[in-house]
Design a protein that fits this description.
With 329 residues, the chain is α+β, with helices and mostly antiparallel strands. The chain has 10 helices and 14 strands.
Length: 329
């Protein structure tokens, strides 16, 4: 008996007797108990109520390909050659990186309920609590490597912000180069991994992690890593559907990638500047052990960070620098 079968029955958050679960799944009560233990071993909170049955600690909306597809427009869906949904993977990015490359102009997408080795920028772990957010990736092949490929994460950020606005999200901004913010708290991150040839084709995998409605415990775990975190639900009047959000992000990324392949970063720069969460604010730029302080001054045409240090502008690229808001600002 696979864990997802049992999860689908428990997903409504109601109490389900062991007898009824065994009958529905056509297994023994012992097999049900073993599957419950497997779920718990994955960190999924399954509660047992004496003489009543089992229930999840909270209802969960499981990933569903048909429901995700409803939020992908017909014109863009044609470019989505594959959508994989998994219960557990090490990393959605790794799965696509190690798999077949899509042909130019089309994409493969992958999402998972659980990631055991999710990662963010510079190898930092990405914490994705079960059912409380999204872990999805998309792979894409460029027939020719765009000259400003290093700015792709910024264009992707614009696409993710657009997806959030579909659900009425307010005060969502972008922190250079790859964070999604709500009121100075991180609600999502972008990780792009690529393989390219000079003057030739390029293969990229775009990972998007989003906190949708993290529990207080999940927020405590995230914040123990030094990250101030929040959930997208805090930016919305009504909690977005998890599947609808996944579909909206996939839809927007398909549009972003198609336009980026044709025109590069230029069509996205003004919108990114309008979403810049740190522009005109005091920040620190970290270059290894070196720390430079100044005022964030937006980005240039190639997506490089501009820092005003005493009236002099300095440019930094995402591969070499990290940006931090000044703690006392």
């Amino acid at each position: 008996m696979s864990a997802p079968e049992l999860l689908r029955l428990l997903a409504d958050g109601g109490v389900h007797s062991g007898e009824r679960l065994a009958e529905h799944l056509q297994v023994s009560r012992t097999a049900v108990w073993k599957s419950i233990e497997r779920l718990r071993s994955h960190g999924i909170g399954v509660q047992a109520q004496a003489r009543a049955g089992y229930r999840l600690a909270a209802p969960v909306e499981l990933l569903d390909a048909a429901r995700i597809g409803r939020d992908i427009s017909a014109g863009r869906k044609a470019a989505l050659a594959q959508l994989q949904l998994h219960f557990e993977v090490e990393s959605t990015n790794t799965l696509l990186l190690e798999g077949e490359h899509p042909p130019p102009g089309s994409a493969f997408a992958c999402a998972a309920e659980l990631q055991t080795q999710g990662r963010g920028r510079r190898g930092r772990p990405w914490i994705n609590a079960f059912g409380e957010g999204l872990a999805l990736s998309m792979s894409w092949s460029f027939a020719e490597t765009p000259k400003d490929l290093s700015a792709l994460s910024l264009a992707v950020g614009v696409g993710v912000a657009r997806a959030a606005r579909r659900f009425g999200a307010q005060h969502v901004g972008l922190k250079w180069p790859n964070d999604i913010w709500f009121r100075d708290k991180k609600i999502g991150g972008i990780l792009i991994e690529m393989r390219s040839e000079a003057g030739g084709p390029a293969f990229v995998v775009i990972g998007v992690g989003m906190n949708l409605d993290p529990s207080p415990e999940a927020l405590r775990v995230i914040q123990s890593t030094g990250v101030s975190a929040a959930g997208l639900v805090q930016a919305c009047a009504v909690k977005p559907s998890r599947n609808a959000l996944a579909g909206a992000i996939i839809d927007e990324l398909l549009g972003v990638l198609r336009k980026f392949a044709a025109r590069g970063f230029a069509p996205f720069r003004d919108e990114w500047l309008g979403l810049d969460a740190l522009r005109h604010r005091p920040v620190n730029v970290l270059l290894g052990a070196e720390k430079l302080s100044g005022t964030a001054a937006g980005i240039d045409e190639d997506g490089g960070l501009l820092l005003d240090i005493g009236g002099t502008l300095r440019k930094f690229v995402s591969g070499e620098a990290s940006l931090r808001i000044q703690a006392d600002a």
